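USER: For my understanding, would you kindly supply a protein sequence with its structure tokens?

ASSISTANT:
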Amino acid sequence: MHLRKDHAEDDISVLQKFVHDNPLGILTTAIKSTDHAFIQSSHIPFVLDLDANDDSSPGILRGHIAKQNPQAKALMEALAHQQTQDPDSLELPDEVLILFNGPHNHYVTPKFYTETKPASGKVVPTWNYSAVQAYGKIKVYCDSKAPETGAFLQRQVEDLSRHAERDIMGYTGGEKPTAWGVDEAPVPYVELLKKNIIGIEVRAERLQGKFKMSQEMRKGDREGVVKGFEGLGTEVGDGMARTVRERGELKDCIGEHR
């Protein structure tokens, strides 16, 4: 990830909240195989576990993939090879990447730059977005007969469903709908589904975050970008305007305290 100073986000708590709020990650692996593509990516929702005793730890990301997914097959093949050398190991030696995208991204027309464009015309189009990348080594839980695989997958599907129902859907009970739980599905049905997925766990070694939201522009241009996005009259436009304003105010605040 290219991290221009104006766009980089270094606060680990901000990055962790970003992942929590945008859990659909793109898992990318590079695994040598005679049967599968070397570089593969899959969209996977993740649960982020944090270490309550270590605020500096990026956390652990847990997810699952269908066994029929070619990326899952490559992971299982790599694990089988790894276990010929270390039978008890579930971790692969090479690093993987998980990319999380923010809820809004949009093209930025030079017409939005109401300060610089009239003065010099020295502006060009760009694209605003936000993203977080997590790097770490991956553990693969794929032996359906192993108790640790069953326990991992049960915890994973329960925690992911709870997170999505409560934090994404807002199903908290009371005046709002109650959340759906895995225990509402027949146990034999859940057990059958678990046999057709593998669990993955990535202990993040580092997180990198980027909010490319016009912070590098002059204040007048940023205000033009906010008004321009608001003028679109769309949900995405409103979300972009709000984020550009927030990141611009944060930049100004940091600048005042230097």
User: Anything to note?
Assistant: Strands lie at 8-9, 24-30, 39-45, 47-49, 60-66, 91-101, 106-108, 126-141, 197-212.
